[in-house]
């Protein structure tokens, strides 16, 4: 971590402008050598024009240079940003020159990792950087920005602070029995631990929201052949993604695309028509359909409202399915079999009527009457969820022992486990393996 690193911070490929970053103790000197200017005397946070030159003195590119001094930079170290033309060869030559002058190539996520290790951000904020980059809807972006602002870290640190006070008092009572320390046992301690446990439960309750915001809700389009499943996928995407044909069995494999519906990121999955397979290939397609249905957050059961009711409806087989009935072809006269299904969303893939109502119905399923998505306490991710579950389990064991009359020494051990698990969320109890797993998901230069 004492070495100076360099990397392109903008996407690879041709562009108008590219940004190259250097960070580390010698970043100013290395940049100054390549630019043949005194970066160490350049005023911080100001932009200066310079020529980036090869070792022979040839101009590689005319660039703009911005200098940052520790600790007032993204990484908390001396940092230089060089804006050059975005040609692939120009950027490569510029990077080669900086490496020649003493920098080394940055690893994936190393800039953000240094920001974390230097105390500029906590681990939840580091993860939020990737959430901001990967956000595909306004809700996801708003939630990511809240996390980047430190909401999850502050909440878990507050919980950790409460636990730390309890543990400190309990261990002081154990270690110094002659100091007349009042033991926090009985109902008072139980009440404090249950209050902490409730706060953890509230954070865990946001995990499903977090998964949907980050990955998209899995919405499976399901139904018999030729009811308009692929047409519905195409019209929701606004492009011809799936082949549409009157021939039954045209869609034999699942087709998956991500789209924003009603502000929610949705992973739309078109499936093979549910019918008896006539060959091995179609049998595999039907099996994959059933697998996708089993994993779905929502199943859109598409039917032809102008035709008699078939036998494939999930509602007739599984009363617990999270599904929404979609009555397609409403531009045609409705068949009497569907007269009692007033709760279904009526649409026509032929003329697009009813589409807004269907999108509102899909969004309503995930909103669940909660207007705070992405606005209040942000949703935890899978790693946070694992840490908080371990903390909840350790607290539950501590409460069980307290209520069973077990000595404070054993209670303190479980509270220590809970304290460590909560601390892991923001990176207060870091391990090399944990950091490698998180920052290895970043792009080079971030």
Throw out a few tags for this protein.
flat, 6-stranded mixed beta sheet, alpha/beta, 12 strands, 446 residues, Rossmann fold, Four Helix Bundle (Hemerythrin (Met), subunit A), 3 domains, Gyrase A, domain 2
State the domain count. 3
By CATH, the superfamily of the largest domain comes out as: P-loop containing nucleotide triphosphate hydrolases
Structural class estimated from helices and strands: alpha/beta
CATH class of the largest domain: Alpha Beta
Task: Describe the model.
The chain has 446 residues and is α/β, with parallel strands linked by helices. The chain folds into three domains: 5-117, Probable tRNA modification gtpase trme, domain 1 (Gyrase A, domain 2); 130-206 and 379-427, Up-down Bundle (Four Helix Bundle (Hemerythrin (Met), subunit A)), CATH 1.20.120; 218-367, 3-Layer(aba) Sandwich (Rossmann fold), CATH 3.40.50. Helices cover 43% and strands 17% of the residues. It has helices at residues 27-35, 88-100, 110-117, 123-134, 138-148, 151-175, 186-204, 207-215, 229-237, 280-295, 355-367, 382-403, 408-426, 432-439; strands at 5-8, 15-23, 47-53, 59-68, 79-86, 104-105, 217-222, 255-261, 264-270, 298-304, 323-328, 345-346. A hairpin with a 5-residue loop joins β3 and β4. The longest helix has 25 residues, at 151-175.
């Amino acid at each position: 971590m004492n070495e100076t690193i360099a990397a392109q911070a903008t996407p690879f490929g041709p562009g108008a402008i590219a940004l190259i970053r250097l960070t580390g103790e010698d970043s100013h000197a290395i940049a100054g050598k390549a630019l043949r200017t005194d970066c160490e005397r350049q005023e911080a946070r100001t932009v200066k024009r310079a020529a980036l030159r090869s070792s022979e003195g040839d101009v590689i590119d005319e660039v703009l240079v911005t200098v940052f001094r520790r600790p007032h930079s993204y990484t908390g170290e001396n940092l230089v940003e060089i804006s050059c033309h975005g040609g692939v060869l120009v950027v490569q030559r510029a990077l080669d020159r900086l490496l020649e002058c003493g920098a080394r190539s940055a690893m994936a996520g190393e800039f953000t990792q240094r920001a974390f290790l230097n105390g500029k951000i906590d681990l939840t904020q580091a993860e939020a950087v990737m959430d901001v980059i990967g956000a595909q809807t306004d809700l996801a972006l708003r939630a990511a920005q809240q996390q980047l602002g430190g909401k999850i870290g502050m909440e878990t640190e507050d919980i950790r602070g409460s636990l730390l006070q309890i543990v400190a008092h309990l261990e002081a009572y154990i270690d110094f029995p002659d100091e007349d320390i009042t033991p926090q046992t009985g109902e008072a301690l139980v009440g404090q631990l249950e209050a902490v446990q409730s706060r953890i439960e509230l954070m865990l309750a946001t995990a499903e929201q977090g998964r949907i915001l980050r990955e998209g809700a899995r919405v499976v389009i399901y139904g018999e052949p030729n009811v308009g499943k692929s047409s519905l996928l195409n019209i929701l995407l606004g492009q011809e993604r799936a082949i549409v044909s009157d021939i039954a069995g045209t869609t034999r494999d699942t087709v998956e695309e991500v789209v924003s519906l009603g502000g929610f990121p949705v992973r739309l999955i078109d499936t093979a028509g549910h019918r008896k397979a006539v060959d091995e290939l179609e049998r595999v397609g039907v099996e994959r359909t059933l697998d996708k249905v089993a994993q779905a957050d929502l199943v859109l059961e598409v039917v032809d409202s102008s035709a008699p009711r078939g036998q494939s409806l999930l509602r007739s087989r599984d009363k617990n399915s999270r599904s929404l009935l979609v009555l397609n072809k409403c531009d045609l006269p409705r068949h009497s079999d569907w007269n009692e299904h007033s709760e279904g969303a009526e649409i026509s893939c032929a003329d697009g009527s009813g589409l807004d109502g269907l999108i509102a119905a899909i969004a309503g399923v995930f909103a669940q009457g909660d207007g705070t998505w992405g606005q209040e306490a942000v949703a935890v991710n899978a790693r946070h969820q694992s840490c908080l579950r371990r903390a909840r389990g350790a607290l539950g064991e501590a409460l069980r022992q307290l209520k069973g009359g077990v000595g404070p020494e054993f209670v303190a051990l479980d509270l220590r486990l809970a304290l460590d698990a909560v601390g892991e969320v923001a990176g207060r109890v870091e391990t090399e393996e944990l950091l490698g797993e998180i920052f290895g998901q970043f792009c080079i230069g971030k």
